[in-house]
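Quick one, tokens below:
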């Protein structure tokens, strides 16, 4: 598959209004992906208090070009006192539809995803937003991916949250289908895993 590329740079995300204002808001991005961009491991903004979202798989979002899910995550972060946000995923393959994900997971992608997540967490106690919704059922291997990610977060006692109460099926809500009025609730990820 080849090497993986992570880049950090400064990208303006508010240029449309630059003519009326004398300054442009500049955001420092965190963006880790494969060289061919077929997989994304980390996308977010740099800050001291990020809201870290864990979804199923990345779609089209990239620095300066956010999709609906990541745009909503950005707003949830701001509304809940975070100065930044980061999007992680159970499986890093880009696919706009979950049914387009690999039928069988790539061990190389899984390992690199977990390496990138561990590097991002870096021993910090972060707030993680469980946000995969019902889509975790799209592929049988996704629950195993979640177990691997949870094990990475246990050493630093990261706290898990969900947007509002979980769905009737017990799955946490996906951000694109959630109201900004819903608070972030504690999410018992270990109980959830026992029920999968």
């Amino acid at each position: 598959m080849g090497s993986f590329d992570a880049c950090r740079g400064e990208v303006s995300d508010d240029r449309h209004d630059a003519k009326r204002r004398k300054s442009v808001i500049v955001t420092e991005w965190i963006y880790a992906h494969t060289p061919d961009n077929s997989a994304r491991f980390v996308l977010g903004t740099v800050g001291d208090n990020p809201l870290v979202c864990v979804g199923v798989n990345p779609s089209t979002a990239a620095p300066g070009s956010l999709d609906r899910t990541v745009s909503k995550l950005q707003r949830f972060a701001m509304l809940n006192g975070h100065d930044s946000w980061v999007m992680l995923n159970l499986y890093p393959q880009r696919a706009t539809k979950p049914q387009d994900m690999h039928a069988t997971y790539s061990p190389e992608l899984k390992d690199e995803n977990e390496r990138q997540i561990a590097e991002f967490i870096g021993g910090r106690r972060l707030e993680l937003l469980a946000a995969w919704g019902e889509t975790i059922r799209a592929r049988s291997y996704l629950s195993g991916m979640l177990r691997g990610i949870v094990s990475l977060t246990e050493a630093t006692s990261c706290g898990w949250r969900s947007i509002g109460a979980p769905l009737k099926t017990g799955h946490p809500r996906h951000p694109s289908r959630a109201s900004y009025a819903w608070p972030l609730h504690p999410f018992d990820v270990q109980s959830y895993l026992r029920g999968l």
